[in-house]
Amino acid sequence: MKFFLDTANIDEIKRISKLGLVDGVTTNPSIIAKEGRNFEEVIKEICSIVEGPVSAEVIGLKATEMIKEGREIAKWAPNVIVKIPMTEEGLEAVYTLEAENIKTNVTLVFSVAQGLMAAKAGASFISPFVGRIDDIGEDGMKLIKNLRQTLVNYEFKSEIITASIRTIGHLEQAAIAGADIATIPGSLLPKLWKHPLTDNGIEQFLNDWKSVTDKENN
Predict the structure, then answer these.
(1) Measured distance CA(156)–CA(165) in Å, rounded
(2) Burial of 195 by CB count in 10 Å (0-12 exposed, 13-18 middle, 19+ buried)?
(3) Among residues 44, 68, 75, 83, which one is catalytic?
(4) Residues 38-65: what's their mean pLDDT?
């Protein structure tokens, strides 16, 4: 499974990249706004740090607007991906851009039907939002499992990005379900490598070593 950081914070991206855990980055207008910087400038800088895909979202709602924005965004870096919302207009934009070899990431997917439409339109990536589905009392991970099976059934090449991940359980279940990618917010990532038994084990090892060295010094 590939890990995409869900952030636009440059320091965070650099820090996690040193661990070999960053396969790509996803952003959206809200994330970019938090950085208080120019959208294009931030995306270009991220693309210079990360070798993998970096998603940059369009703002327009009409297909013509999204296509125009997508073509411009695609010029920013060879690894930039045009992020497009799941709408009728969005599907038209995806179909057009992918035909021009501009990779797209269809976002705000909440059903197998939507994911199937994105795949048929040729989307390189499909982003189901599991956390938001859980928020309305439904099972977000069931969508990942069913969408994975649907894409396998018909041999679609679109990669599933499990988005809106909020817990370790979300990540683990997405991996088990066969999702290609997980988007992980920086706040969640440290929890993935920490465990109280690991901390206890390190403490015990240090205490045991101290007792050995104390005996040798007496």
Answers:
(1) 24
(2) exposed
(3) 83
(4) 96
Q: Which amino acid is at 74?
A: A
With a CB cutoff of 8 Å and minimum separation 6, the contacts of 171 are 162, 165, 182, 184, 188, 192
Identity of residue 63: A
Bridge partner residues of 162 (DSSP): 182
Q: Residue 81's pLDDT is what?
A: 98
Report the distance separating Cα 190 and Cα 187, nearest Å: 7
Q: Specify whether the CB–CB gap between 183 and 31 falls below 8 A.
A: no
Amino acid at 128: P
Measured between alpha carbons, how far is 13 from 7 in angstroms, rounded to an integer? 8
Give pTM, 2 decimals.
Answer: 0.91
Phi and psi dihedrals of 137, rounded to 5? Answer: 85, 10
CA distance 173 to 214: 46
The pLDDT of residue 210 is 84
d(CA 34, CA 85): 20
* Residues 84 and 54: beta-carbon distance below 8 Å: no
Q: Is 83 a catalytic residue?
A: yes
Buried b (16+ CB within 10 A) or exposed e, 121-156: bbbbbbbbbbeebbeeeeebbebbbbbbeebeeeeb
